[in-house]
Amino acid sequence: MKRVTKLIGISLLCLGIMTACQSKAPEASTPKSSSSQVTVTDAANRTLTFKQQPKKVAALSSGDMDIIHALGGEIVGRPTTKAPVSSPELQKATEIGNPHSPNFEKIAAIKPDVLIANSGFERHIPTLEKQGIQVYITKGSSVEGIHKSIEDYGVLLGKQDEAKKWTKQIADKLQSLQKEQPAKKAKALLVYGAPGSYMIALPSSLTGDLLSKVGGENIATAFPVSKEMPGYAQLSTERIVQSNPDVVYLITHGDPAAVQKAFEAEMKKNSAWNNLSAVKDGKIVVLPSHLFGSNPGTKIIESLDFLKDSLVKATGS
Predict the structure, then answer these.
(1) Burial of 50: CB neighbours in 10 Å, binned 0-12, 13-18, 19+
(2) How close are the terminal C-alpha atoms of the chain, in Å?
(3) What is the pTM of this model?
């Protein structure tokens, strides 16, 4: 009887081992491609699914290009801009135009796994999808928006660890600034544009958000929002004179010196500008275009530091 019991026990043990091996078989046969599939939701609330982690990336803004490059992604298409490209790797990438004037032929030629474009680009998506190119819409109009973009690109590229390093730096900087808010807030006017065409940046713009983060006061808080350019308002000399800013900042895309010269000529046409404290004290500051002309990407920390130091000089504290 003991012999029979022993044989039954051995049989059950073998059966258990066989069953365990069979239960693991499906896991071993799972295709590798399914484990690298990525599903993300962009700023336009569109869900995109990639069969595998995108490798070749094209970007229509310098900020997005900077983030992808900083995370270790491969940029095959970069925006056409006058700003110098310091990295040799980025210089090799094909210029594909800008958000307002994309070069669809060049984008199709480089065949990126994903094209990153700003909000407002949605109308062009069908054109690129016909070419088999997926478009990821992003929105970097605030510090939080850039922080989220870094997180999202980390997931998209499988570079979550690299993304966490950058987002931590931004979070630490914001925490530091919160503790160092000035006792007296400098009143600032943010002028955006080019010779002959100027707009006022509102708190809802990226530079407006940066200003609030470093403890500045935007005099255009109550200015009516422009329908053509959300986040900006039409220049109103009367409102500006009433607010009397301590410092005037010029935001430019192109030649900073030319913009400053043209803006000063514009002010001379209206004597009311001469009554402003900022003009009397010579506090007209041209913001570096690579830090303020558009989304600066990972350089957002430099943007915050520059603006903070500038405000300290403006208030003398």
Answers:
(1) middle
(2) 96
(3) 0.84
